[in-house]
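Inverse folding, one chain.
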């Protein structure tokens, strides 16, 4: 039986990129995903969201108790 020899210059993982040269060019220009919120805002935002949540929950319980 004849053995199949793979061409070592072609990586099977990159065949799609080899066929689509435009895609490989655009992948070089991709910038990494970053957070829309600065890291310093996380403590302030967490306290603010907890305060809003407590107000919403308290108003719901007051509404239900007075019904």
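Residues assigned per position:
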């Amino acid at each position: 039986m004849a053995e199949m020899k793979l061409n070592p210059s072609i990586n099977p993982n990159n065949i799609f990129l080899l066929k689509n040269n435009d895609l490989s060019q655009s992948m070089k220009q991709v910038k990494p995903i970053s957070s829309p919120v600065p890291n310093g805002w996380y403590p302030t935002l967490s306290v603010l969201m907890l305060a809003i949540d407590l107000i919403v929950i308290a108003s719901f319980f007051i509404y239900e108790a007075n019904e």
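The longest helix spans residues 42-65. The chain has three helices and no strands.
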